[in-house]
Amino acid sequence: MTETAADEQAVAGVAPALRLRGVGRRFGGLHAVRSVDLEVAPGERRAILGPNGAGKTTLFNVIAGDLSASSGSVELFGQDVTHMPSRHRARLGLARTYQQSRLLLGLSVEDSIYLSILGVAGGHLRPVILKRRDRAIRQRAREAARRVAIEHKLAELVGSLSHGEHRQVAVAMALASEPKILMLDEPASGLSRGERLLVTELLLGLDRAITLILIEHDMDVALRVAERVTMMHDGNVIVEGTPDEIRANELVHELYLGRQHYADE
Amino acid sequence: MVLVVALLGPFLFSDFFTHTLLTQVFWYGIAAASLIFLFGYGGMVSLAQVSLYGIAGFVVGNAVTTGAAKGQHFGLDPWLGVVLAIVITTLIGLVLGALASRSFGIYFLMLTLTFAVLTNYFFGQVTVFGGFSGVSGIQLHTPGVIGNPNIHPNRLYYVALGTSVAVYLLIRYVVRTPFGVALQGIRDDPVRMSSLGYNVTLHRTLAFAFGAFISSLAGILFVWWNDHVDPASMDLSAVIDLLVIAVIGGLSRLEGAWLGAFVFVILNNYLRSVPGLGHVGISPERFHTAIGIVFLVIVLVSPSGLMGIWERLRNRVAGAGGSIGSAPPGEGPREPDSQPAAG
Q: Which ipTM was obtained for this model?
C-alpha cells in the first residue's frame, strides 16, 4: 500500500501502463473532463474517486476509446492511442466494465464470456467451428465464470439474470480476456454487503501483473483495494495520493467523504 | 414430421398444391429466412432481401435466355447463370452492406428501403436488362438435372425442398460459429462489442452479404418456378409481402420463415375461392385486406408470430415453462450511447 510500485517503475524507465496528458472532453458547452494528467504504473491498483458529475466515467470512456478526447493524449504502455478505435485498444490488453452493465442480454452467460475472450484472441469472422480451439476458449470462459461464482448459470440468458449476477458476468467477461489493464466502473454499486465483500476479495486476489483502475463510490472497497487514489472534481484532478493521505486531506473531506453516508446507501 | 410430409408431397397432394403452392412456399421461405437471419441474429431489419432475389432472378434471366427473349439473352450455360447470379447478388449485398452497416435501427431500415425502391426503378427503366416487361422463357434454360419445370415439376420441387433444408441447416450452423455468436453480440450491443475488440461494421457488412447470398438462392428458384421476372417481382408490394411472411412466421425462429410462407401462400390462393367471402366484402381483390387482418391478429396475439404460438402450446403440453433454446429474442440493437456519461 505504498507508492513504491510507481517509483520503482519510474526509476527502471518502464513506460507507464497508462499515461494521460491534458485530456479533456467536451459535450457541447459542457466540460465533462477539463484537463487531466494521470500516470498509472504497470501492476498498480488505482482508484478514481469523486462526487457524481466529476467526470470519472467520461474519463474512462476516453481511455477505453468509446469516446474520443477533445484535447490531450492517451498512451497505453508508451504507445499513443489517442486516435485508435476502441477495438484496437482492447487488443492491446485493455478491458473494462460499465457503470450500467452493458451486457449482451440475448446471449447465454457462457457465450458472453466466450465473446470477451474471442475479441482479443482473434478469429472473429471465422464461419466454421474449429472443435479444439473453440473448446479451449469455452474452457477458459467456464473458468472465468467459476472465479466470480456464476458457473451455475452458464447456459442461462444474461437478460434473465439479476442485477448482482450482471455485475458478476461483467467482471467475468473483463477477467476472461486476460487483460493487462482492467478498468472497473463501480463494480460494487448496487450490491449487497456480502456481495461487496466478495468483490473486494476478488480484486485483492487479482494477478499482480494486471494494472487495475477502479471507479468506486464505496470507500471501503476503494481504499482497501487501491494503492494510490486520484480525486476528481468538476472535470479536474484535485488530489492524488495514498489512501492514508486521501483520508487525511481536508479538501477531500469537504467535497466527498463528508457525504459518504449519503453516497453509501 | 414436416420434412417427411414434404418429401412425400408429390404423392400426397394434388399437382397444383405441390408444384404451384409448395414450391413457392420453399423459395419464399428461403427469402424470408435471409430476412429472419439478419433480424434475429444481426438485429438488422432489411427491406432489401426482395430486391436482392429480384437481382438474382434478372441475372439468371439475362444470362441464360436466348434469341427472342428480352434483355441481354446471352444464352450462357444454366449452371454458369446460377454461379453468376449468386456471385453478383452477393457482391451487391457486400457493397450495400458496407454502405448501410454503420447505421442502426430505423436508419438501417430506411437505407435498405431506398435500395429496394432504386432497384425496382432501375429494372423498370433500364431496358437493356429486360425493362418494364422483364425477361421470360427462363424455364427453357434450366440445368439438365432440373429440366423444364413445366414438364418435370417434381424435380424443381425437390430441388427447392433440398435447398430449403440446406439453407436452414447452414444458418443454424453459422450462428453457432465464432462469426455467428459475435454477430448476436453485435445485435445486443454494438458499442460493447467494439470495446471487446470486434470490428462491428465489417461484421455487419459480411452478415449482410451472407443474407444476400441466401436471397440469391431464393431468386434463382423463383425464376425457375415463375419462368419470368420483371420489376413488379420486386416492387414495394413484394417487399411488404416478404416482411409479412417473416412476421407471421415469427422473427425469432428460423423455422418461422417457411411456416409464414406456407400460411401466406395458402391464404393467397384459397381465400379467393372460399364460398361466401364475397358476400362479406372479401373478394379476390381484397386479398391484402384479408392478409392484413391475419397479420394484425397474429402480431397482437403473439409478437413472435406463429412459431411463438406453437412454442407456447408445446410448453403447455409439456407442462414446462421452457427456454427458447438457442433462438434469439426479437430485440433490435440498442442505439449507440451518445449522451455524456458523467461520472
A: 0.81
